[in-house]
Design goal:
The complex is a heterodimer of chains A (about 725) and B (about 150). By secondary structure, chain A is α+β, with helices and mostly antiparallel strands. Chain A is built from 18 helices and 29 strands. Chain B contains six helices and five strands; from the N terminus they run ββαββαβαααα. Chain B has a five-stranded mixed β-sheet with strand order 2-1-5-3-4, sandwiched between helices. Classes of the chains: A alpha+beta (about 725), B alpha+beta (about 150).
């Protein structure tokens, strides 16, 4: 059976055969496709190149640099390599190279970052080339052995044939010789229409261990002599530790040490995590909360509302014509104000990392969405150079963007540094996880639409006010102060482009950055932008007395790919036919992460506030589909995440801290609330879009528009629980 | 000290009687298949069977569990033969990240023991585990497949 080999406790998943160079992370991508020096895996099997190891028994080990967190790209990337390699899929296993190994080999595996729905689209070209190059070298090795031209040989399922003589051999038999060959300079990739492994809904490679409790997540790491740490960071973001009374807990069972972690946190280290947590709960800590303790959701909302006013400065993200003048002179004007709250990622597995620090080495075991970022965090927190550090990636119990951040890695190293030689597993309680998220940013939006006398939309002004993620997380990516990502889904062009043509358009962002730390939360800025734009588009359609689908279609003539996915959901849900008795429909579309998506919802509403979501149809055009079964699951899952946030989510701020503490106050959808989700894949080819995130954008607006159809009431504020609306 | 019978084996563990069963299973018995998700019996990631009934192990103490038959995900299979729920989960590719699935599988196994052919309403009532990846559609389909086998 296929299996993903978790690195587990092996300090080295394989041995690097070349001299380690003290390379920094800044070195550019240099993908080795093999060469005269044979690099060997730990069991002695030769690397044909960085992506492919072939064992004598014909097992193929495919290296995966991106992280698996449930989204399935580990399997998808292996499919792409195997497709070009022409190996036997039933003999494929995968393993993670470590970031330290990659840096030592001049970033042999490229980018490790697994966010922005880039796992496959960001690496498909070079991993396919890795597979194709290995195939050519393996075939060449067989041809050399037979002393025949490689052009007379064919390969299928890892068996090489010399057609004129009928001789055969296998990859396992020629791998040693292949590894010594100079890789070909040119490789030609297959046309995706000829795929036989990629493009198929193959079963995932990492399922079996997830059904028996044997899959090792970060929380499950066990090292000899390991101790466990529980941590409390100042509940007010930006606050500091003033003092703590260690003596009060020093005698509690299992307690080994109480340590300050940076300026802001305190951790208890104990034999078990339960003892550490129990002692931490009993530990008197005094915080210096600072001025942020005065901030509340109300004060943030007031500040954001001020940003909706045209007198305040704003960055222009998308513009044509003169929207303000056109609105001033219009026959009819529609205006609405929306808002979207903070959201916590709430991965099922709370943040954790295990660190072992000695004077000349620092290793970390953790789930991370970005092995290289975690590695950089280890270097910084440990103060050790790159050749003395490494990160061993484990399966993530959910990521959704949260595990692209490295705060928990730094904390684990900071604690381990105070106990050299002892492995320390730091685990956050759920309460700590809720209190110290990297939250989906808070925004408000004022939208103004204007019609001429014939109900044609002549102008649209979209004024966003609120938090920038990049300002906090990646300030170097700001463009003259503007956060270009703030316009995801309503941008002029690019991978998240606006799908409508409006003669006079102004889309702008008044940036306001509260002290609550923002982060990339599945779908990121598409979430609120799609709600604002698509719900308002529904408002405009009704104001014009037009069908919401037809109204959109008229504005989408110049956006055929956006329109195609919208048409696909409309057809599948039966938009042109009446909905069943008591059932109402809503529709939405958006572009994000290079993919075009649309969604339609069928709901019924009882007593005006109990929503039953019966059915969702969601379509996507991601260019190419590598594993349709996994794309289908990502689409369904994106609706669970998006509708959980719509109905139950929302993190509020009081006294500078987050009020929600656990799943009782930050609830998540259950199976009883799950609609039937029908995925419609319409890959049109010629580009590579993402899958994990885009469809979350249409989840909330499709349901909110259906709610209006059912009740005549507009919901312009999330979450619905604040308005006493819930699942039926 | 507490004696716990887990997966047919007796563990004598150095734990305080008020320790939540979850942490005794994970840290003292070393069975890490049972997961921590919330600690307040909301999410179901820590679901085990106690005398055949699905229980959230973070919500009961070691002293309450002593003397009872505890089954964790590691003990669900019969020797080398996986439980039918595990088999269906593999055949139908149910898990995504998989972190909640130990608890999900234990909850479903208990449901099917009580109701071998559950209706959708039975499933809605019995399966209240949180899955942030959103595997519910596959969970429901797999349950029905098992029931119709």
């Amino acid at each position: 059976m296929n299996k993903h080999v978790s690195p587990g406790m092996n300090r080295r998943a394989f041995v690097v055969g070349t001299a380690a160079v003290g390379a920094g992370l800044a070195i550019g991508l240099d993908i080795p496709f093999g060469g005269p020096t044979v690099v060997r895996a730990a069991d002695g099997s030769p690397e044909v190149n960085a992506w492919v190891v072939v064992r004598p028994d014909d097992t193929v080990v495919i290296r995966i640099a991106r992280s698996e967190m449930g989204q399935g790209s580990l399997t998808g990337l292996a499919q792409l390599v195997a497709e070009e390699l022409e190996c036997d899929w039933s003999k494929v296993t995968t393993e993670y190279p470590t970031p330290g190994q990659s840096v030592a080999r001049k970033r042999a595996w490229g980018d490790f970052s697994t966010g922005g729905s880039r796992g496959i689209r960001g690496s498909q070209d070079y991993v396919r080339k890795g597979g194709a190059t290995a195939r050519m070298m393996l075939v060449q090795a067989a041809a050399d052995e037979w002393k025949v031209p490689a052009s007379e040989c064919t390969v299928a399922r890892g068996v090489i044939n010399h057609n004129p003589t009928g001789r055969t051999t296998t990859y396992g038999k020629v791998a040693e010789a292949a590894a010594k060959l100079t890789p070909p300079a040119e490789v030609k990739l297959k046309d995706p229409k000829d795929w036989t492994i990629a493009g198929k809904g193959l079963l995932r490679l990492d399922t079996a261990d997830k059904t028996t409790g044997t899959m090792v997540y970060g929380i499950d790491v066990k090292l000899p002599g390991m101790l466990n740490a529980a941590i409390k960071d100042c509940p007010v973001f930006g606050g500091k530790v003033k003092s703590f009374d260690e003596a009060k807990v020093a005698g509690m069972k299992g307690v080994k040490k109480v340590v300050k972690v940076g300026e802001t946190a305190v951790a208890v280290v104990a034999d078990t995590w339960w003892h550490a947590k129990t002692a931490l709960d009993a530990l008197p800590i005094t915080w210096d909360e600072g001025d942020n303790a005065k901030v509340s959701s109300a004060s943030i909302a007031k500040w954001l509302t001020e940003g909706l006013d045209d007198s305040q400065p704003a960055y222009v993200g998308n513009k044509n014509g003169d929207a303000k003048a056109a609105i001033a002179g219009a026959a009819k004007k529609i205006e609405a104000v929306y808002n979207y709250p903070y959201q916590n990622h709430a991965t099922m597995e709370p943040m954790n990392a295990t660190a072992l620090y000695t004077a000349d080495k620092c290793e970390v075991w953790c789930g991370t969405q970005n092995g290289e970022a975690a590695f950089a965090a280890v270097l910084e927190a440990s103060g050790l150079p790159a050749d003395k550090c490494d990160v061993h990636k484990l399966m993530l119990g959910g990521g959704f963007g949260r595990r692209g951040m490295t705060d928990y890695v730094r904390q684990a190293v900071a604690i381990a540094k105070q106990m050299p030689g002892t492995p320390i597993k730091l685990l956050w309680s759920r309460e700590e996880d809720m209190a110290h998220g990297k939250y989906h940013p808070v925004t408000q939006c004022k939208l103004t639409g204007a019609f001429d006398a014939n109900n044609n939309l002549v102008a649209l002004h979209y004024r966003l006010s609120g938090q920038s993620i990049l300002f906090s997380v990646r300030p170097e990516a700001l463009q003259n102060g503007m956060d270009p990502a703030a316009f995801q889904g309503v941008a002029q062009s690019g991978e998240a482009a606006f799908g409508y043509s409006v003669p006079n358009l102004l889309i702008e962002h008044s940036m306001r950055n509260p002290h609550v730390p923002p982060g990339f939360w599945r779908g990121v800025n598409v979430n609120h932008n799609a709600i604002y734009m698509e719900c308002f588009m529904d408002e405009l359609a009704h104001a014009a007395g037009q069908d919401p689908l037809e109204f959109r279609r008229k504005l989408m003539g110049n956006h055929p790919k956006h329109l195609a996915v919208l048409n696909a959901v409309a057809e599948k849900i039966g938009w042109s036919k009446p909905a069943p008795q008591g059932v109402y429909r809503g529709i939405a579309q958006v572009m994000g992460y290079g993919s075009y998506v649309a969604g339609a919802a069928e709901i019924s509403v009882t007593d005006g506030n109990k929503i039953k979501v019966h059915r969702i149809v969601a379509s996507t055009d991601p260019g190419y589909v590598v594993n349709p079964a996994q794309v289908e699951r990502q689409i369904a899952g994106s609706f669970v995440y998006g509708l959980s946030a719509l109905f139950y989510g929302g993190c509020t701020v009081k006294d500078g801290r987050i009020e929600q503490t656990n799943f009782d106050t930050y609830n998540s959808m259950r199976i009883s609330e799950m609609p039937k989700v029908e995925a419609v894949m319409v890959p049109s080819g010629g580009f590579w879009g993402g899958v994990g995130e885009p469809t979350i954008g249409v989840a909330a607006p499709a349901v909110l528009n259906a709610y209006f159809a059912a009740t005549g009431k507009r919901i312009r504020s999330v979450p619905l629980r604040d308005q006493n609306i819930t699942f039926a | 000290m507490a004696d716990l019978t887990i997966n047919g084996k007796t563990f004598t563990l150095d734990v305080e009687p008020d320790t939540p069963l979850l942490w005794a299973i994970r840290e003292n018995a070393g069975l890490t298949g049972t997961k921590y998700g919330c600690g307040i019996a909301q999410c179901g990631a820590c679901t085990v069977h106690i005398d055949g009934v699905a229980v959230r192990s973070c919500g009961i103490s070691v002293s309450e569990a002593a003397g009872k038959k505890i089954t964790t995900i590691e003990g669900l299979a019969s020797g080398a033969t996986l439980h039918k729920v595990q088999q269906a989960w593999i055949a139908q590719d149910v898990p995504q990240c998989g972190y909640c699935q130990s608890g999900m599988i234990m909850a479903v196994a208990a449901l099917l023991k009580d109701k071998p052919k559950p209706t959708d309403a039975d499933i809605d009532e019995a399966i209240t585990n949180i899955c942030r990846c959103g595997t519910f559609q596959q969970v429901r389909q797999a349950i029905h497949t098992i029931a119709s086998a």
